[in-house]
Amino acid sequence: MTDCELNDPVTIDPLALSSEDRAWVEGTLDTLSVEGKVGQLFALSSIGDDLAEISRHCALGVGGIHRFPGHDLKAAWEATRAAIQESRIPPLISGDIEGGTVSQAFATAVPNQMGLAACADEDLSRRISAIVLREARRQGFNWTFSPVVDINRNFRNPVVGTRSYGSDMATILREAGIMTEVLQAGGIATCAKHWPGDGIDDRDQHLVTSVNGLSMDEWHASFGKIYRTMFAKGVMSVMSAHIALPAAFPADAGAGRFVPASVSKRLNLELLRGELGFKGLIVSDATPMGGLTGWQERAEAVPAVIENGCDMFLFSPDPGGDYRHMMDGLRRGALSEQRLEDAVRMILTLKARLGLHRMTLDEWVPPLEEGTTRLSTPESEAVAAEANARAITLVKDTQELLPLDPARHRRVVLLAEEGWNFISGALPRSLDVFCEDMRRAGFDLRMYDAETPPAPEDTDLVVYLIGQEATASLSHIYLDWTALHGGARKAMKRFSREIPTLMISLGQPYYLYDAPDVRTYINGYSALPTVQTALVERLLGKAPFTGVSPVDPFCGEEQLRY
User: Fold this and answer.
1) What is the pLDDT of residues 474-491, one digit of tens each?
2) Annotated catalytic residue: which of 201, 285, 311, 460?
């Protein structure tokens, strides 16, 4: 890659406006008081469908509201409409639209990003994106904090995993490009995250300031290329994370080399805007996260987020207090008037680019038909079921266990770990569909009992079923043998040499690292009900395994292949 290829700025402006829309931006900016401009900087979270919380946010004059809707469509619809009606300036309504078990209870349960990548089918990815677009627009969303364009290079990273498209750059660029093209053509701004790139460190920025430890040459050839390509695709926003990129700083900068990108002028204004030429909106990652709170005290961090290049400040444990911190930062010069002006202009520009100032309420959030409880259709459910099934990946079967047969493997012991999810409003987690389908197929399935562990005389098959997808604050990816087997001493027992053993992950794809003795291993990427049903069909040989692994499930270890 030449210096010219690395350093020439991107010329595309994803937020280019007509003269009429530009006049609305400048006219609106002129009408705002200083207090009104500060309010626009905030994108606050709305947990569930609490109308009182939304009213408090709107009273601050916030620029955006990030929705974590509950499980009732009508309540979610009413809450979003309230946010629009109570806002003086049309708000950005954002969401974490990533699929998997983060899908909403009343929407089509589409694959998470890794599951979609495992399908390796551009047409299917476009059909899934079209479903996401239709249902998100019906809910009033105009901004999604996706796609995740992180490179899942470090298999021990707990928060990238199934939220990513994997470790292959071509796959990441293909899938992220499709999502961006489809959603933005339909009026929803996308957001490439997590700048300057996650997946190198094995820690989670929700808990610590994590580090992208690549050299700048390595960074430009990987993350730099990904972001430049996304800019060429016209992505409208980038999320600046609490991740450090020390190679971008002089070697003698000491602790300053490890400043989170969210409060780094060097990373946001000089590298992202200057060297890479990004012209869209920069939003911080969630500011209550440990990667920021562990770096800087709140009163300093709040204005620093905007002063150092982010245009929008995401989430707050104390919205009123953070508003006061921002105002105080402006008074004492920690936030310049110029940065305030530039940031608010960028926020209004994104709103104008999406045409929010021209929408009626019913155009924005269409009326619900009487009795409607779901957004999905039979057609969308069929497409999602196809994708969820096609993603399932047979990693290895060196013992030639498959297909399973109730005549040979009737007595099955199941050791299950459902996992959990950080996201409010995420789908409930259950492995019941797998159990019911196995029993219906003729297997005598019983749950593991630590006091009477399986033995060859009473068990034909041991199945480990892990449902943990990538999620915030998970800390580490590993098999908790103590929890699975019911005690520290029992954790040391392995059944695989005495009883045929099958391990299935309906989440993170790397559990073989902790189970090298397991000779039959499958990745399903999420525990959605349609995945579980399709999994049983494939275990029985009724359908082929078609998934193409987006990562190395052997974690670079030859031992795991056998």
Assistant:
1) 888 999 999 999 999 999
2) 285
